[in-house]
Amino acid sequence: MSLKYYTHGRRDQMKVALTFDDGPNPPRTDQVLQILESRGARGTFFVLGKWVDRFPQAFQRIVDGGHCVGNHSYLHEAHLGDFDRAEAAIGNLLGRPTQFLRAHYFNFFTCLYSPVAMSRDMKIVDADVNPADFAKTDPQAIVDATLNAPSLAGGSIVDLHDGREFDDAARRLTSPLPMIEALPAIVEGLQALGYALVGLDEMDLVDPIEWRPDGRGTFGSPEVREAIEGLGGKTT
Question: Would you tell me how many other CB atoms lie within 10 Å of the CB of residue 13?
C-alpha cells in the first residue's frame, strides 16, 4: 500500500483549517480554546498520547469545545512511529477512532509499521502554511508568516503549536506564548479575508501526495529501512 498525505482541501471553498500540534498543554491549550470560541472558530488539535494520558481533562475540554482531534504519535520521538499506542490513549477518552494523523517532524516513514496510520480510514495530514511558530519569539512575525504566506488560499491547512513534546514543564509552557499572543490577529485576519475557520472534518481534502522516501529514513530501524526500500526508495 502506498503512503499518501494531504496538504490542503478544496481550493474553491473559502475554508481554512487551523491545526495545533503537541498538546494538550494546560493552561496554554485552554487559552487557545478561549480565543477560538470567542471568535466563532473551530480548530483541529493533533495531540500527543502521553499528554492525553497526563492531562485527560484538558483533552476533554478540546472535545467538549466541539473541536476536531487527530493523532500526533505518543512520545513524539523522531524515529518512533507509536501511533497505535497514541490511538489507544485518544480513543479511550474520545470513544471513537480518530480520522486524521500527522507524522511528528513530518517524518512520514514513521507511519509504515503502524496499522492505525496505514488504515484506509485514516487521512495523514501535512500543511501548506507553516509559519514555524515554535521557532519564533515575535508574535507579529507569526502573524505575518501566516497571513502573508504565498500558499495561503481556500483549503489551506495552517500548522501551529499549542504544546511541545518537552517533559520540561517550563519549556513546554513557555514555547506557545508567542503563538497565543499572535492567534487573535491570525483568526481575525483570516476571517477578514473571508475564510471560515473550520475543523478538518469540515474540509474536503484533495490532491493527496504520494510520499517518496527521503534522507530522513536513513536513521530508521532496519525494519523501517527495509519497508522504505520496498516502496521503491533507498535509504542511503
Answer: 16
